[in-house]
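Margin note from the TA: students keep mixing up input and output lines. Inputs are the sequences; the output is the structure of the whole complex. Example:
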Amino acid sequence: MSDGIDRDLFRRIQDRVAIVGIGHLPFAKDLGRPIADTAVEAIQLALADAGLEAEDVDGFSMFEMERTHEISIARRLGVRNLGWWDKVSYGGGAAAATVLHAACAIATGLATTVVCHRARNRGARASRPWAQERGVVSDDKALHVPWGLVRPVDIIGMWAHRHMHEYGTRREHFGNVALAARRHAQRNPHAMMHGRPLDMETYLTGRPIGWPLTLYDCCLETDGALACIVTSRERARDLRQPLVLIHAGAQASGPNPVHLANYNASPALETTATWCARLLWQRSRLGPRDMHCAQIYDAFTPLVVMGLEEYGFCARGDGGPFTEGGRIEIGGALPVLTSGGGLAEAYVHGFNLLLEGVRQIRGTSVNQVPGCQATLVTGAAGVATSALVLRRE
Amino acid sequence: MALGEMLPPEVLPEDYPLPDLDDPVMAPFWAGARAGRLLQQRDRLTGRVCWPPKPLYWKDGQRLEWFEASGRGTVYSYVVAYEPFLPAFARWMPLVLVVVELAEGPRLVGHMVRCAPSEMRIGLPVRVVFRPLSERVVLPVWEPDR
């Protein structure tokens, strides 16, 4: 296009913006606090991790679907003047996008130091949208909710069952994901499932929720508050943490988008991750083979099997066999969900996957992949989603 | 074609999530169902069926039309839903939720009636029947095309 706009924006962003601080509150079933309150505490922890003060912050990039206001957080935190802010919605899809937007703002000079965060209070009605469906449902929800296709487990179960039918994927393959996540959680004292290992027999005999998906295919339901701080690579050099560079990022809705229950995007029943991966790798000088581990969004185990395919770690249909032989566990060729993920650490819409990606690049994960140079962090497949590649300098 | 079979009316729980009949994009679909017809939308220019439907003013406003679909298709995928669930649906547990691939191409979400979970398989031929939820709302649902 010849409109004078630089389409290759990623030359200006790639490896020039960094995540310099991370922080989160202890995960819990019920924190019992408003999300603006927990968010501010998590942001303070991330600032302290970076060696920054609230006064250094001039931008906010929030993962938000509950109508928390930037100004509430800015006021409570003590931000001097918010000069840029942004919200990304879509449960599960937005964690990587908040960082991508922050990187754009920093690269274009709209902000210098941006807070990205996600906080959830599952006790609050707005935090679990599916459980609130009653009365009249509108827009894309009217395409599935009135029939009873309401719970995300059932919506994803449709993909999972078709995948099993079409490619011979077995429940054991989904079980490999559940077991990997749970195994990784055993070394993570923050994980909700720390001290509670899982074996294949227990997995296979889990009670059905939305058959073929059963109890251990489902993520946890957790309260949490997490934040990270993003700034330019040059500023990052003066701070205390090892550099975690934002190498590439992407968002995608896919064609014909319906929130989560989109079975008409393409003939092959691809999820939004397919389109997100395409943009991500176009913008990246690294490819799937350069990833030393991957944090693939895991609200339900099949999303990881499909994510391995859609992000290009294996061919379409081979995601099930890819999980075999410990390949996705620590010590394997591509460890996934190294903190335990949504299945075993905490379910906070994938923001914990982002923080774990940062730790892997810093070299400070409890399940550290030796010499980890680059990692993929993804949002939920099925919803309007996003993904990031993080790398070491 | 003959009108689809209308099942006996239900006594609906108050909290049943009913569709918004006032959405102009979907209104023809719901009006069709109320009359025992499964309506779909297509692009006159390309013949392609649009599901989910688009607003009729799309492009130049001349392209889209609603038509009566065959009411037949196959099970593209399905899930058998167990508790915990929304209370409004609890009496139907276990509920067989389906994605039906219509003979015309698009994939519609629905649920099965008069079909045990053990009868289900992907590829099963199905036909539409109509389940009245209220005086105004009728849901196209599916049964095995025996």
